[in-house]
Design brief:
The chain is an alpha/beta fold. It is about 35% helix and about 20% strand. Strands 7-4-3-8-9-10 form a six-stranded parallel sheet, sandwiched between helices. The chain is globular, with a radius of gyration of 18 Å. It binds tricarbonodiimidic diamide. The site of tricarbonodiimidic diamide has 10 residues, from α7.
Length: about 240
């Protein structure tokens, strides 16, 4: 049975640096950049010289959380790092940085690299958005920069964010820091995020919850799945 996350009850799960509590109806699941450009060979991630196979490992854990969140009727936000076809939203500094084998906008194995609408820019099939979910194309690393995300979340009364996606220390951490400065309480699911550099992932996770949660909270997805499963067993009057 689908249960809308209308409960005003607060759910709590174990996390670092301390327990994370959230009202499901005021919480969005934010999935950062699970797009072919980063996860499959021939996309942006590989043009930067990375081994993209590392990132695919988190897909099953992300699927499990997404399925549980959807089953409870929770708000889902997907982001894609995506530029306009004319590159008018891609600063030359970003395009010219480093020595990638292909630059943003060049033709690659999955269409033009990091360009909206190209095959490589689509979210992977396993996590594809469904009707009613928010999809944000973002020209920067952060989900809030030059997007309407903050306004969309405010319109829906969202105060808490649960993050998954890639890469931990680049687009995920940047988005969490942007969220923090805008007043959101954020949780990062550690088995649902990955980096091309395992030690960067470990450091980024530590940076989020250090100093009393200077950016937010971190936890494995099992605790979240457990509280969502418990929610399904609440009597109706406590759900709504
Ligand atoms: N290169 C890298 O680690 N990440 C990005 O360029 N974008 C995101 O993290 N999505």
């Amino acid at each position: 049975m689908t249960t809308a996350l209308q409960t005003s009850a607060s759910l709590t799960l174990a996390a670092e640096p301390f327990a994370f509590s959230f009202e499901p109806a005021r919480t969005a699941l934010v999935i950062i950049d699970m797009q072919r450009d980063f996860i499959e060979p021939g996309g942006f991630g590989q043009t930067l010289g990375n081994d993209v196979s590392l990132l695919a490992a988190i897909v099953p854990a992300c699927q499990a959380v997404l399925a549980a969140w959807r089953a409870r009727g929770g708000l889902v936000v997907h982001t894609r790092e995506a530029h306009r076809a004319d590159l008018s939203d891609c600063p030359p500094a970003k395009r010219n940085r480093g020595n990638p084998s292909l630059r943003i906008g060049d033709m690659g194995a999955m269409g033009r690299i990091l360009i909206a609408g190209e095959p490589g820019n689509q979210i992977i099939e396993a996590l594809a958005p469904v009707a009613g979910e928010i999809v944000i194309d973002k020209p920067g690393k952060g989900a809030f920069y030059a997007t309407g995300l903050h306004e969309l979340l405010q319109q829906r009364g969202i105060s808490h964010l649960i993050f998954m996606g890639v890469t931990t220390e680049v687009c995920v951490q940047t988005s969490m820091r942007e969220a923090n400065d805008r007043g959101y309480d954020s949780l990062l699911l550690t088995d649902c995020t990955e980096s091309y550099f395992p030690h960067f992932k470990a450091s980024a996770v530590a940076m989020v919850h250090a100093q009393g949660g200077i950016v937010g909270w971190t936890a494995g997805s099992a605790g979240l799945l457990q509280v969502l499963a418990n929610l399904a067993h609440l009597p109706d009057e406590q759900r709504c």
